[in-house]
Amino acid sequence: LRPKPALEEFVETWCAVRNITGRQAQIVALFVSRSLSRDEIASELGISPNTVRSHVERLLLGTNFQTLEAIRRAILGDARSADDGSSSVDGGAVDADGCACPAPTTRGSV
Q1: Cβ count near 67 (within 10 Å)
Q2: Measured between alpha carbons, how far is residue 15 from residues 1, 8, 43, 105, 106 in Å?
């Protein structure tokens, strides 16, 4: 057995605290850590691209993210925050669900 890279472990934990299903977590891990396309993920997992699409649709609905890329950005932002010990990303905060929130803007600012 090879040790898991730190990013893979972080993705597993990120998914677990959000109650993401095992198969959805596998899809997220392959997308985030190996940058695989949906077709490549299907091939890697031995399932059809339509099955991957269904898992992704349910994943997005359950997490309120719009795209897998948005999930990747959140995970990588959260991982960077964990590395430096901070609890904010790009001047924003991390909410109770662990999602990076943009910094608030003041009225009249651009």
Answers
A1: 10
A2: 22, 11, 22, 30, 33
Question: CA-CA distances (angstroms) from residue 88 to 2, 4, 19, 74, 78?
Answer: 32, 26, 22, 11, 8
Angle between helices 49-63 and 68-84 (to 10 degrees): 60
| Residue 83 to residue 87: CA distance in whole angstroms | 10
User: Considering the entire predicted model, what is its pTM?
Assistant: 0.69
Q: HEC states along 13-61?
A: HHHHCCCCCHHHHHHHHHHHHHCCCHHHHHHHHCCCHHHHHHHHHHHHH
Residues of the chain short of pLDDT 50, as ranges, are: 87-110
- DSSP character for 66? S
